[in-house]
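To illustrate the input format used throughout this study, we show a single complete record. The first block contains the structure-token representation of the backbone; no residue identities are included at this stage. The design step must infer an amino acid for every position from geometry alone.
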């Protein structure tokens, strides 16, 4: 007979974190799924709600939701691509160019926006790009005609890039810093140019950080509702704005929960595809699996 495995005393230290994970992650997701089948808001002083499939059928027939979902995914893709393009040179410079004793100062400059509230960052950017703002006034003063693009989709993208670029830089920096300088020097000495060195060494070895950065940028950007409401104008609404209005304005918790579940499923599928594609790219260019 097989002996039963005894619980090691050291494993008991994981119970608090496991309980916290269960409380803050799994329980809310289960509640979200449960609320999707309710026919009224249980927190609005109404009788105990019944059960219905009407929220799902309404969501499937809603052209507004699918249009906003596509717009949100497109905005998330644009912001993520811009963050990747801007973060790779910055992370490389911090990890390989800047002297080690000055990297701490560079890190402080990157995380400096985290020292204030997100709302203040948004209003600060609005003051820069609005008509008569600091940036527009400075450009006009030096002879460059500049027109404010506040309350447009471009303003939404700019603010989101400004907010989430530090996450991408930090994720890529943590991966690039672990790449040995000898590998890069050996690649260049053996005849590989800088582009080939990047595609065959830097990119495969920084892929874990890239995936983390995409997760921390793409997912919250797609679900954003504060930035589109403040800087996007009347035509800047995204799917997060629609979900927020169902809970805050319409008090339709069931329909809002259905929209949230569909958004979560779509994001999980997209992230799984990105993870699979990145692993395949690593294999094809000789990276680790």
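Output of the design step:
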């Amino acid at each position: 007979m097989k002996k039963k495995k005894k619980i090691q005393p050291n494993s008991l230290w994981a119970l608090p974190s496991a309980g916290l994970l269960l409380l803050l992650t799994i329980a809310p997701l289960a509640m979200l799924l449960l609320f999707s089948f309710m026919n009224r808001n249980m927190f609005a002083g109404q009788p105990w709600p019944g059960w219905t499939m009407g929220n799902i059928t309404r969501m499937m027939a809603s052209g507004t939701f699918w249009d906003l979902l596509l717009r949100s995914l497109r905005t998330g893709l644009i912001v993520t691509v811009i963050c990747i393009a801007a973060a790779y040179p910055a992370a490389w410079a911090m990890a390989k160019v800047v002297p080690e004793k000055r990297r701490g100062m560079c890190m402080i400059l990157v995380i400096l926006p985290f020292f204030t509230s997100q709302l203040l960052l948004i209003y600060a950017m609005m003051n820069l790009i609005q008509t008569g703002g600091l940036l527009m006034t400075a450009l006009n003063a030096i002879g460059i005609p500049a027109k404010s693009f506040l309350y447009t989709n471009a303003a939404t993208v700019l603010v989101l890039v400004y907010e989430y670029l530090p996450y991408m830089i930090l994720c890529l920096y943590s991966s690039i810093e672990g790449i040995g300088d000898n590998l890069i020097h050996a690649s260049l000495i053996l005849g590989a140019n800088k582009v080939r060195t990047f595609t065959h060494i830097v990119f495969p070895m920084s892929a874990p950080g890239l995936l983390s950065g995409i997760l921390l940028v793409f997912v919250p950007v797609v679900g954003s509702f504060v930035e589109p409401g403040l800087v996007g104008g009347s035509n800047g609404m995204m799917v997060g704005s629609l979900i927020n209005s169902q809970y805050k304005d319409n008090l339709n918790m069931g329909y809002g929960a259905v929209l949230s579940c569909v958004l979560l499923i779509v994001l999980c599928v997209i992230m799984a595809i990105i993870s699979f594609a990145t692993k395949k790219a690593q294999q094809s260019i000789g990276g680790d699996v």
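Structural context for interpreting the output: The mean pLDDT is 85. The two ends are 38 Å apart (CA to CA).
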